[in-house]
Protein backbone atom coordinates (compact mmCIF):
# COMPACT_ATOMS: atom_id res chain seq x y z
CA UNK A 1 0.00 0.00 0.00
CA UNK A 2 1.47 3.34 -1.04
CA UNK A 3 1.27 6.17 1.47
CA UNK A 4 1.00 9.60 -0.09
CA UNK A 5 2.90 12.26 1.80
CA UNK A 6 0.64 15.13 2.67
CA UNK A 7 1.86 18.58 1.70
CA UNK A 8 1.76 20.92 4.73
CA UNK A 9 -0.73 23.62 3.96
CA UNK A 10 -3.14 26.03 5.49
CA UNK A 11 -6.18 27.78 4.20
CA UNK A 12 -7.34 31.18 5.33
CA UNK A 13 -10.39 29.73 7.11
CA UNK A 14 -8.07 27.88 9.51
CA UNK A 15 -5.50 30.66 9.77
CA UNK A 16 -4.38 31.56 13.29
CA UNK A 17 -2.84 35.01 13.24
CA UNK A 18 -1.25 34.63 16.67
CA UNK A 19 0.99 31.94 15.18
CA UNK A 20 2.25 34.35 12.51
CA UNK A 21 2.53 37.58 14.51
CA UNK A 22 4.79 38.75 15.95
CA UNK A 23 7.37 35.99 15.35
CA UNK A 24 7.69 35.95 11.58
CA UNK A 25 6.91 39.61 11.14
CA UNK A 26 9.86 40.32 13.41
CA UNK A 27 12.21 38.03 11.48
CA UNK A 28 11.32 39.74 8.22
CA UNK A 29 11.93 43.26 9.53
CA UNK A 30 15.06 42.13 11.34
CA UNK A 31 16.78 40.84 8.18
CA UNK A 32 16.21 44.16 6.43
CA UNK A 33 19.28 45.41 8.24
CA UNK A 34 20.90 42.13 9.32
CA UNK A 35 22.21 41.39 5.82
CA UNK A 36 23.16 44.95 4.92
CA UNK A 37 26.61 45.17 3.36
CA UNK A 38 27.82 47.77 5.85
CA UNK A 39 26.85 45.54 8.77
CA UNK A 40 28.08 42.22 7.42
CA UNK A 41 30.61 42.35 4.59
CA UNK A 42 30.30 38.60 4.17
CA UNK A 43 26.82 39.09 2.70
CA UNK A 44 27.91 41.50 -0.03
CA UNK A 45 27.97 38.69 -2.58
CA UNK A 46 24.57 37.40 -1.48
CA UNK A 47 23.01 40.83 -1.99
CA UNK A 48 24.56 41.32 -5.41
CA UNK A 49 23.40 37.87 -6.52
CA UNK A 50 19.88 38.56 -5.28
CA UNK A 51 19.89 41.81 -7.25
CA UNK A 52 20.80 39.92 -10.42
CA UNK A 53 18.06 37.38 -9.67
CA UNK A 54 15.55 40.20 -9.30
CA UNK A 55 16.36 41.57 -12.74
CA UNK A 56 15.95 38.15 -14.34
CA UNK A 57 12.74 37.46 -12.40
CA UNK A 58 11.21 40.71 -13.63
CA UNK A 59 12.38 39.99 -17.17
CA UNK A 60 10.99 36.43 -17.30
CA UNK A 61 7.77 37.23 -15.50
CA UNK A 62 5.50 34.88 -13.61
CA UNK A 63 3.23 34.26 -16.59
CA UNK A 64 2.35 35.79 -19.94
CA UNK A 65 -0.07 38.09 -18.15
CA UNK A 66 2.38 39.14 -15.47
CA UNK A 67 5.66 40.87 -16.16
CA UNK A 68 6.37 42.29 -12.71
CA UNK A 69 8.67 45.12 -11.89
CA UNK A 70 9.40 44.34 -8.25
CA UNK A 71 11.95 46.74 -6.81
CA UNK A 72 15.38 45.32 -6.11
CA UNK A 73 15.17 46.38 -2.46
CA UNK A 74 11.89 44.54 -1.82
CA UNK A 75 13.16 41.46 -3.67
CA UNK A 76 16.25 41.53 -1.45
CA UNK A 77 14.05 41.54 1.67
CA UNK A 78 12.12 38.52 0.45
CA UNK A 79 15.33 36.63 -0.32
CA UNK A 80 16.96 37.59 2.96
CA UNK A 81 13.92 36.38 4.89
CA UNK A 82 14.07 32.90 3.34
CA UNK A 83 17.84 32.74 3.67
CA UNK A 84 17.69 33.78 7.33
CA UNK A 85 15.14 31.10 8.25
CA UNK A 86 17.22 28.40 6.58
CA UNK A 87 20.52 29.67 7.97
CA UNK A 88 19.46 30.10 11.60
CA UNK A 89 16.83 27.40 12.19
CA UNK A 90 16.54 23.70 11.73
CA UNK A 91 13.43 22.37 10.06
CA UNK A 92 12.22 21.16 13.45
CA UNK A 93 12.74 24.61 14.99
CA UNK A 94 10.25 26.52 12.88
CA UNK A 95 6.66 26.04 11.91
CA UNK A 96 7.09 26.02 8.15
CA UNK A 97 3.39 26.49 7.59
CA UNK A 98 3.25 29.83 9.38
CA UNK A 99 6.73 30.92 8.33
CA UNK A 100 5.71 30.42 4.73
CA UNK A 101 2.27 31.91 5.32
CA UNK A 102 3.97 35.18 6.16
CA UNK A 103 6.25 34.84 3.12
CA UNK A 104 3.19 34.11 1.00
CA UNK A 105 1.56 37.31 2.23
CA UNK A 106 4.65 39.43 1.47
CA UNK A 107 5.07 37.92 -1.98
CA UNK A 108 1.35 38.33 -2.72
CA UNK A 109 1.53 41.96 -1.63
CA UNK A 110 4.53 42.63 -3.85
CA UNK A 111 2.78 41.05 -6.85
CA UNK A 112 -0.31 43.10 -6.11
CA UNK A 113 1.76 46.29 -5.91
CA UNK A 114 3.10 45.75 -9.45
CA UNK A 115 -0.23 44.83 -11.03
CA UNK A 116 0.01 41.03 -10.73
CA UNK A 117 -2.44 40.55 -7.87
CA UNK A 118 -4.20 37.68 -9.59
CA UNK A 119 -1.05 35.57 -9.83
CA UNK A 120 -0.46 32.58 -7.60
CA UNK A 121 2.33 33.29 -5.05
CA UNK A 122 3.38 29.63 -5.19
CA UNK A 123 3.99 29.90 -8.91
CA UNK A 124 6.11 33.00 -8.37
CA UNK A 125 8.04 31.22 -5.61
CA UNK A 126 8.78 28.27 -7.86
CA UNK A 127 10.16 30.71 -10.42
CA UNK A 128 12.50 32.09 -7.76
CA UNK A 129 13.65 28.57 -6.86
CA UNK A 130 14.42 27.89 -10.53
CA UNK A 131 16.59 31.00 -10.74
CA UNK A 132 18.61 30.34 -7.60
CA UNK A 133 20.68 27.61 -9.25
CA UNK A 134 21.96 30.04 -11.87
CA UNK A 135 22.60 33.03 -9.63
CA UNK A 136 23.46 31.86 -6.13
CA UNK A 137 26.55 30.04 -4.97
CA UNK A 138 26.01 26.56 -3.59
CA UNK A 139 26.35 27.58 0.06
CA UNK A 140 23.84 30.40 -0.42
CA UNK A 141 21.03 28.42 -2.03
CA UNK A 142 19.08 28.25 1.22
CA UNK A 143 15.82 29.35 -0.34
CA UNK A 144 14.01 26.05 -0.22
CA UNK A 145 12.57 26.53 3.27
CA UNK A 146 9.07 26.72 1.78
CA UNK A 147 9.49 23.85 -0.67
CA UNK A 148 6.96 21.16 0.07
CA UNK A 149 4.72 23.71 1.77
CA UNK A 150 1.54 24.83 0.08
CA UNK A 151 1.62 28.61 -0.05
CA UNK A 152 -1.65 30.43 0.41
CA UNK A 153 -2.99 31.43 -2.95
CA UNK A 154 -6.47 32.58 -2.01
CA UNK A 155 -5.59 35.66 0.02
CA UNK A 156 -8.76 37.71 -0.26
CA UNK A 157 -8.55 41.50 0.03
CA UNK A 158 -9.87 41.47 3.61
CA UNK A 159 -7.26 39.00 4.88
CA UNK A 160 -4.53 40.76 2.93
CA UNK A 161 -5.45 44.11 4.52
CA UNK A 162 -5.43 42.51 7.99
CA UNK A 163 -1.93 41.14 7.40
CA UNK A 164 -0.80 44.50 6.09
CA UNK A 165 -2.15 46.39 9.11
CA UNK A 166 -0.65 43.95 11.62
CA UNK A 167 2.67 44.10 9.79
CA UNK A 168 2.64 47.90 9.86
CA UNK A 169 1.63 47.85 13.52
CA UNK A 170 4.70 45.85 14.53
CA UNK A 171 7.02 47.74 12.20
CA UNK A 172 6.10 51.00 13.95
CA UNK A 173 6.44 49.30 17.33
CA UNK A 174 10.02 48.23 16.58
CA UNK A 175 10.72 51.84 15.64
CA UNK A 176 9.54 53.37 18.93
CA UNK A 177 11.73 50.94 20.84
CA UNK A 178 14.70 52.92 19.54
CA UNK A 179 13.12 56.40 19.36
CA UNK A 180 11.30 56.88 22.64
CA UNK A 181 10.73 60.59 22.00
CA UNK A 182 8.93 60.13 18.69
CA UNK A 183 5.17 60.66 19.06
CA UNK A 184 4.52 60.32 15.31
CA UNK A 185 4.93 56.53 15.33
CA UNK A 186 2.79 56.18 18.46
CA UNK A 187 0.00 58.04 16.69
CA UNK A 188 0.42 55.72 13.71
CA UNK A 189 0.16 52.72 16.04
CA UNK A 190 -2.93 54.16 17.73
CA UNK A 191 -4.71 54.70 14.40
CA UNK A 192 -3.92 51.21 13.07
CA UNK A 193 -4.77 49.53 16.39
CA UNK A 194 -8.12 51.32 16.60
CA UNK A 195 -8.95 50.35 13.01
CA UNK A 196 -8.13 46.69 13.71
CA UNK A 197 -10.08 46.79 16.95
CA UNK A 198 -13.25 47.70 15.08
CA UNK A 199 -12.84 44.84 12.62
CA UNK A 200 -15.32 41.98 12.55
CA UNK A 201 -12.45 39.54 13.05
CA UNK A 202 -12.04 40.88 16.58
CA UNK A 203 -15.74 40.91 17.39
CA UNK A 204 -15.99 37.27 16.43
CA UNK A 205 -12.42 36.45 17.48
CA UNK A 206 -11.83 35.11 13.98
CA UNK A 207 -8.34 33.79 13.22
CA UNK A 208 -7.35 34.45 16.86
CA UNK A 209 -6.92 38.12 16.01
CA UNK A 210 -8.00 39.19 19.49
CA UNK A 211 -5.03 37.32 20.94
CA UNK A 212 -2.66 39.22 18.67
CA UNK A 213 -4.07 42.61 19.68
CA UNK A 214 -4.07 41.76 23.38
CA UNK A 215 -0.46 40.64 23.21
CA UNK A 216 0.51 43.74 21.24
CA UNK A 217 -1.16 46.07 23.73
CA UNK A 218 0.64 44.36 26.60
CA UNK A 219 4.01 44.94 24.89
CA UNK A 220 3.15 48.48 23.83
CA UNK A 221 2.12 49.55 27.35
CA UNK A 222 5.77 49.57 28.33
CA UNK A 223 6.45 52.21 25.65
CA UNK A 224 3.31 54.34 25.84
CA UNK A 225 5.26 57.21 27.43
CA UNK A 226 6.75 59.48 24.79
CA UNK A 227 9.70 61.15 26.52
CA UNK A 228 11.11 64.52 25.51
CA UNK A 229 14.24 65.92 27.12
CA UNK A 230 12.91 69.47 26.81
CA UNK A 231 9.42 68.91 28.27
CA UNK A 232 7.25 66.52 30.24
CA UNK A 233 6.55 63.13 28.61
CA UNK A 234 3.31 62.54 26.72
CA UNK A 235 1.27 59.42 27.22
CA UNK A 236 -0.63 57.68 24.42
CA UNK A 237 -2.39 54.56 25.65
CA UNK A 238 -4.18 52.06 23.44
CA UNK A 239 -7.85 51.21 24.01
CA UNK A 240 -8.74 47.97 25.74
CA UNK A 241 -9.52 44.88 23.68
CA UNK A 242 -13.06 44.33 24.97
CA UNK A 243 -15.73 42.91 22.71
CA UNK A 244 -18.79 40.77 23.04
CA UNK A 245 -18.62 37.33 21.54
CA UNK A 246 -21.20 36.25 18.94
CA UNK A 247 -23.52 34.95 21.69
CA UNK A 248 -23.69 38.42 23.24
CA UNK A 249 -21.69 37.71 26.39
CA UNK A 250 -18.92 40.06 27.42
CA UNK A 251 -15.44 38.79 26.74
CA UNK A 252 -14.32 39.92 30.17
CA UNK A 253 -17.39 38.94 32.19
CA UNK A 254 -18.31 35.62 30.62
CA UNK A 255 -18.66 33.25 33.56
CA UNK A 256 -20.66 30.57 31.77
CA UNK A 257 -17.73 28.83 30.11
CA UNK A 258 -17.76 25.11 30.75
CA UNK A 259 -14.85 23.23 32.27
CA UNK A 260 -14.35 21.44 28.96
CA UNK A 261 -13.97 24.78 27.17
CA UNK A 262 -11.55 25.92 29.87
CA UNK A 263 -9.45 22.80 29.40
CA UNK A 264 -9.38 23.23 25.65
CA UNK A 265 -8.50 26.89 26.08
CA UNK A 266 -5.69 26.00 28.47
CA UNK A 267 -4.28 23.45 26.04
CA UNK A 268 -4.47 26.01 23.26
CA UNK A 269 -2.65 28.63 25.37
CA UNK A 270 0.11 26.16 26.17
CA UNK A 271 0.42 25.37 22.47
CA UNK A 272 0.66 29.05 21.58
CA UNK A 273 3.52 29.53 23.99
CA UNK A 274 5.77 27.43 21.74
CA UNK A 275 7.85 29.43 19.26
CA UNK A 276 7.90 26.97 16.50
CA UNK A 277 8.67 23.70 18.22
CA UNK A 278 8.45 22.09 21.65
CA UNK A 279 12.09 22.92 22.33
CA UNK A 280 11.97 26.68 21.76
CA UNK A 281 9.86 29.06 23.82
CA UNK A 282 8.21 31.58 21.56
CA UNK A 283 8.04 34.54 23.92
CA UNK A 284 11.57 34.04 25.21
CA UNK A 285 13.06 33.79 21.74
CA UNK A 286 11.28 36.87 20.44
CA UNK A 287 12.03 38.82 23.61
CA UNK A 288 15.74 38.06 23.31
CA UNK A 289 15.79 39.34 19.74
CA UNK A 290 13.79 42.44 20.61
CA UNK A 291 15.95 43.21 23.63
CA UNK A 292 19.09 42.99 21.52
CA UNK A 293 17.62 45.28 18.89
CA UNK A 294 16.28 47.71 21.48
CA UNK A 295 19.59 47.78 23.33
CA UNK A 296 21.44 48.61 20.12
CA UNK A 297 18.93 51.34 19.35
CA UNK A 298 19.15 52.73 22.89
CA UNK A 299 22.94 52.94 22.69
CA UNK A 300 22.73 54.84 19.43
CA UNK A 301 20.03 57.02 20.96
CA UNK A 302 22.22 57.87 23.97
CA UNK A 303 25.04 58.94 21.69
CA UNK A 304 22.67 61.20 19.80
CA UNK A 305 21.26 62.64 23.02
CA UNK A 306 24.70 63.34 24.50
CA UNK A 307 25.94 64.93 21.30
CA UNK A 308 22.82 67.07 20.95
CA UNK A 309 22.83 68.10 24.61
CA UNK A 310 26.51 69.07 24.51
CA UNK A 311 26.02 71.17 21.39
CA UNK A 312 23.02 72.96 22.88
CA UNK A 313 24.82 73.66 26.15
CA UNK A 314 27.88 75.09 24.43
CA UNK A 315 25.75 77.22 22.14
CA UNK A 316 23.70 78.49 25.11
CA UNK A 317 26.81 79.39 27.13
CA UNK A 318 28.26 81.35 24.20
CA UNK A 319 25.02 83.30 23.76
CA UNK A 320 24.87 84.13 27.50
CA UNK A 321 28.48 85.33 27.51
CA UNK A 322 27.84 87.49 24.45
CA UNK A 323 24.74 89.08 26.01
CA UNK A 324 26.54 89.70 29.30
CA UNK A 325 29.48 91.25 27.50
CA UNK A 326 27.41 93.43 25.20
CA UNK A 327 24.46 94.65 27.23
CA UNK A 328 25.15 94.37 30.98
CA UNK A 329 27.35 95.85 33.69
CA UNK A 330 29.46 92.75 33.42
CA UNK A 331 30.40 93.96 29.95
CA UNK A 332 31.69 97.29 31.27
CA UNK A 333 33.89 95.32 33.63
CA UNK A 334 35.28 93.25 30.78
CA UNK A 335 35.74 96.04 28.21
CA UNK A 336 38.92 97.58 29.68
CA UNK A 337 40.45 94.18 30.24
CA UNK A 338 39.61 93.13 26.72
CA UNK A 339 41.19 96.28 25.30
CA UNK A 340 44.25 95.74 27.47
CA UNK A 341 44.54 92.18 26.22
CA UNK A 342 44.26 93.38 22.62
CA UNK A 343 47.03 95.93 23.20
CA UNK A 344 49.26 93.30 24.69
CA UNK A 345 48.69 91.08 21.69
CA UNK A 346 49.37 93.96 19.28
CA UNK A 347 52.49 94.90 21.19
CA UNK A 348 53.84 91.38 21.06
CA UNK A 349 53.09 91.24 17.38
CA UNK A 350 55.00 94.52 16.78
CA UNK A 351 57.96 93.28 18.77
CA UNK A 352 57.95 90.16 16.66
CA UNK A 353 57.99 92.23 13.48
CA UNK A 354 60.81 94.44 14.81
CA UNK A 355 62.89 91.39 15.64
CA UNK A 356 62.34 90.02 12.16
CA UNK A 357 63.39 93.33 10.54
CA UNK A 358 66.44 93.55 12.79
CA UNK A 359 67.51 90.06 11.89
CA UNK A 360 67.05 90.74 8.18
CA UNK A 361 69.19 93.89 8.35
CA UNK A 362 71.88 92.15 10.38
CA UNK A 363 71.94 89.29 7.96
CA UNK A 364 72.27 91.57 4.96
CA UNK A 365 75.02 93.63 6.58
CA UNK A 366 77.03 90.63 7.57
CA UNK A 367 76.61 89.23 4.10
CA UNK A 368 77.78 92.49 2.56
CA UNK A 369 80.74 92.71 4.94
CA UNK A 370 81.72 89.19 4.11
CA UNK A 371 81.42 90.01 0.45
CA UNK A 372 83.57 93.16 0.92
CA UNK A 373 86.26 91.30 2.79
CA UNK A 374 86.37 88.64 0.15
CA UNK A 375 86.41 91.19 -2.64
CA UNK A 376 89.22 93.26 -1.17
CA UNK A 377 91.38 90.25 -0.41
CA UNK A 378 91.73 89.67 -4.16
CA UNK A 379 93.44 93.10 -4.60
CA UNK A 380 90.95 94.31 -7.24
Keywords:
mainly alpha; two-stranded antiparallel sheet; 64% helix; disordered N terminus; disordered C terminus
- Average pLDDT works out at 73
- In N-to-C order, the SSE pattern is HHHHHHHHHHEEHEEHH
Please give the number of β-strands.
4
Q: Biggest β-sheet: count, sense, barrel?
A: 2 strands, antiparallel
* Distance, first to last CA: 131 Å
For the largest sheet, list the strands in their spatial order.
1-2
3D shape:
elongated
Low-confidence stretches: 1-7, 245-285, 358-380
Helix content: 55-70%
| Number of distinct helices | 13
Portion in strands: under 5%
Return Rg in Å. Answer: 35 Å
Decide which structural class fits the backbone.
mainly alpha
Detailed description of the structure:
The chain is mostly helical. Among the domains are: 1-155, no CATH class; 333-380. The protein contains 13 helices and four strands. The chain has helices spanning 17-20, 23-34, 44-60, 72-88, 96-113, 121-135, 157-176, 183-197, 200-203, 209-220, 259-272, 282-327, 329-376; strands at residues 225-228, 231-235, 274-277, 280-281. Strands 1-2 form a two-stranded antiparallel sheet. Strands 3-4 form a two-stranded antiparallel sheet.
Amino acid sequence: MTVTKQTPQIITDNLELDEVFPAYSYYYHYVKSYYDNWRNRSYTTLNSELSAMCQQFNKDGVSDNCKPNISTVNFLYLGRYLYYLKEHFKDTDINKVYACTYFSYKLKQELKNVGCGNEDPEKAYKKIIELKGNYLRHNEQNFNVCEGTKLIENFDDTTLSIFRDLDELYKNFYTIKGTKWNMYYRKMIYGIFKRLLSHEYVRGDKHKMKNVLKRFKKEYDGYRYCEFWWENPEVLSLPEVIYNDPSGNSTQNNTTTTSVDNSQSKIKEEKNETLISNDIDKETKITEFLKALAEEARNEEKLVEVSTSTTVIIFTVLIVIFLLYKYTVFGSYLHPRTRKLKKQLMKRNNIHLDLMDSFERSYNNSFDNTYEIGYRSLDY
